Amino acid sequence: MKNISTQALKGWIILSRPPFHTVGILPFLLGTFLAYRLTGAFYPEVFVFGVAGVILILLSTYHAGEYFDRRENAISARIHENPFAGGTRMINEGKISARVALWTSIISIFMAFIIGVVLQFVYKTGPYTLLIGFLGAVPGFFYSTEPVRLVKRGVGELFIGFCFGWLPVASSYYIQTASIAPVIHWLWMPIGFSIFNVILLNEFPDYEADIVTGKKNLLVRIGKQKGKIVYIIFNLFTCLTMLISPCFGVPFQVIYFYLPFVAVALFIVYQVLKNRHEDARWLKILCGLNIAVNLGTSLAFILAYV
Description:
Layout: H1 2-16, H2 22-39, H3 44-68, H4 70-79, H5 98-122, H6 129-141, H7 156-163, H8 166-177, H9 184-202, H10 207-212, H11 218-243, H12 254-273, H13 280-305
């Protein structure tokens, strides 16, 4: 019995994708740190509740995706072994019940709502706290959830860019200060562009499975060749908006911290131009480096303000 419980816990942890929580937590940390540097405001309890809310929304998003993407993930499991696409395979391998994923998704989104209520009405974080929370929670939950299922409507990637770009930075700043600094409206762009590209590149390994199951995400709608062009453009947008961010109030030191990630981003572009992404082994490497660019973008901003 103890061994079964341990295996179930391990499966649930894998299903929850802890490493991928960093794409939401780092921008949230950035907004919190920005609030402290610009206004001196930092309320530890608010920060802890805020991080918990972000994690719960991510859990809800990931678990709903595992539940509603079971067909695509089953096909992907036979096509590739890319850890950045095709889900965790925990449901398809029978290690976690599909019902568990569905209910933990629903429970997580409900708990995130409770945290939003506590932040707005107990800690008085501002009249728009719940509204800002809804802007992240609703698209996250319905990214894969039927009948809305944003991922099949060709706009899911754009919602991800917003929810993992502007939203975590602005929301964490807001719950500390009850305001949003103008610089946030600029510095979120490279973060948003890079996470958009994370989703887009991760759709390449699942392309065939998505076509078979009718999952009309952006890549399926425009095809691999146009998807390659869109990816390159957004990668260049990421670098450009990051490098000129000092013109909009970001400390100039951000350039020094971001240069290594510029090199990585341009390396990926070069490999994509050479069609290396069509090789499964190379694609796995490029997907990993792609996430590093996204995380490095948020980290460079944090270090610049330090």
